[in-house]
Design goal:
Strand content: 5-15%
Strand order of the largest sheet: 4-1-5-6-7
Number of helices: 22
Number of strands: 7
Shape: globular
CATH topology of the domain at 4-179: Rossmann fold
CATH class of the domain at 4-179: Alpha Beta
Order of helices and strands: EHEEEHEHHEHHEHHHHHHHHHHHHHHHH
Oligomer: single chain
Amino acid sequence: MMAEEDIVESGEARHYRAFLSYSHADERFAGKLHRWLEAYRIPARLVGTVSRVGARPVQVPRRLTPIFRDRAELAAASSLDQEVRQALSQSDVLLVLCSPAAKNSRWVDAEIELFRSLHPDRPVIAALLEGEPEESFPTSLVGPDANGVTHEPIAADFRADHDGARLARLKIVAGLTGIALDQIIQRDAQRQLRRVIAITLLTVLLTLSMALMLIFALRAQREAEHQRQQAEGLIEFMLTDLRQRLEGVGRLDVLGSVNERALDYYADQSDLNALPADSLERRARILHAMGEDDHKRGEYAGAVAKFAEAHRVTGTLLAADPRDPSRIFAHAQSEFWLGYVDFMAGRYEKALPRFIAYRALAEHLVRLAPENQAYWRELAYAEGNICTIAVTLKGPEEQLAECGNALKTMERVASMVPDDRSLDADIANRHAWMADALRVQGRNVEALEERSRQAAIVQRLVKEDPKNATYQQDWMLARYSNAQLLYSLGEKSRAEQLREEAMQDVARLIASDPENNDWRLWQAKLAAPFEH
């Protein structure tokens, strides 16, 4: 327990909250970050709490001011001037903007060395702007100090495929205040959510005010149309733009009640023929998005209800214009999702007609536009879906043939767009199902050859993008399927080894996303004994 006199008000004993060190090449970024940090307000519930910055207990301030940033005269100097030395001596934290230019800057290096010599117990925060750490971190940042001690800097990664700007800035706030990052993120998310809700409510109030001003000038039918558009626009905003923002801070759960209200709203509109086409198209997009969200969370009943309503909508659109490719495509998605939910639940007799209808719609698309590779790709997916049921049920022969058709169709797509590397995973998947079809027919040696082709593609994809969870999942399934084949061919030791590796793969996937229900289902399948 700390005594009250041990708590230091950060900023009283030393003048600067932080010293911002950077290369001249990064001056524009430094200016923007400096302004953001000094304007940032600590969430009210955290202000005044006691935390630690380095080895020192501090009280969390309302604002992160002042932060030292002055590089005007250093370019022509031969050593750090007195103002910089004094600022470093009076700073709680050193914040280093890391880039290839910063690594080559002797001034950044000198500032790090001086700060650590003056304050060996105070934290250094590394903000990575571009490049890899080994080509962007200054030598003094990662090297040992005068006492031979190597200090691990607090890292905030601004690169888009890592932390990104928002999370990186919050990591810096956590480092400057000593507050746990999860607290900062949670409080900041709550504040952002309150702002979004306030803006949304204000928008609704302004819209209603405008509607009241116009009510005496518009006929009743136009007023009803206006209200319908407003309601649907707000629902679409909540389920698209706002959903994306909340996903970024892990608050998708807030939209659960909104999803249900939206579904009730659309279910009440029984006469779809009375609605304009744009309203129907928006309705279908929203219902597909809601259904996909439910399916990912394992809420299958909710997903079926939304996909069924989407099917009703896309069917109405298609009936109005049966040759419109966009409407054929939309209805194909409705057929697929309803079939997929039944397939995953083991209701194959219900899933098969859906997948056959999906294939028929895809065939219609390629007849209308035979040069469109996206439509051929859709046909390959549809043929593959029928193949999955045939493999699961071990026949009939004509449906097993769809496995080969799906592979040929996907290879045709690859020949149409040879530079599209996203097709590699699809082709690998078609090799996998072709292997399963051969295995059903007792052609295990040929099946193993197809699995080898699949594994070669997937292994290359994983090597090129090791962080891609889809590729990791494909690699896990490829190893397990090879294990099954090897077991049936009598190579039991090698089969068990591959299964163990696949189980380790799926365990890592679940650890990265515990809410992914599909991976948990696969974990259970992998744990089951091999079939003789």
